[in-house]
Amino acid sequence: DVPSALRELKLNKPRMSYLDILLGVSKRMSLVKVYRVEGLQSHGETNPYIIIKCENSKVRTPPQKVTGTAVFNTQAVFYKRKVDSPIIVQVWHNAFIDRFLGEVR
């Protein structure tokens, strides 16, 4: 038997609110890590940023100035009420009018 470094998550959880009575409590915690985005095709420099969405929450990274591969090294924690709700990672180009580049679910 090898001891594991795993431990129970006790303190890092969302606070209970009155809406939890109606909507239900969180059933799952999901951790999403985005290291980099490759294959950005552009005529010149791009300014990509990432939006990670789950249920009613979202996380947005600051824009990066790159020419092909953007390193974000970002993570987000989501507490999900619905176990089957998708996590969506979108890539956008930061400009005067932002442009959608792609997404993964």
From TrEMBL:
<feature type="domain" description="C2">
    <location>
        <begin position="10"/>
        <end position="105"/>
    </location>
</feature>
<dbReference type="Pfam" id="PF00168">
    <property type="entry name" value="C2"/>
</dbReference>
<protein>
    <recommendedName>
        <fullName>C2 domain-containing protein</fullName>
    </recommendedName>
</protein>
<dbReference type="InterPro" id="IPR000008">
    <property type="entry name" value="C2_dom"/>
</dbReference>
<dbReference type="InterPro" id="IPR035892">
    <property type="entry name" value="C2_domain_sf"/>
</dbReference>
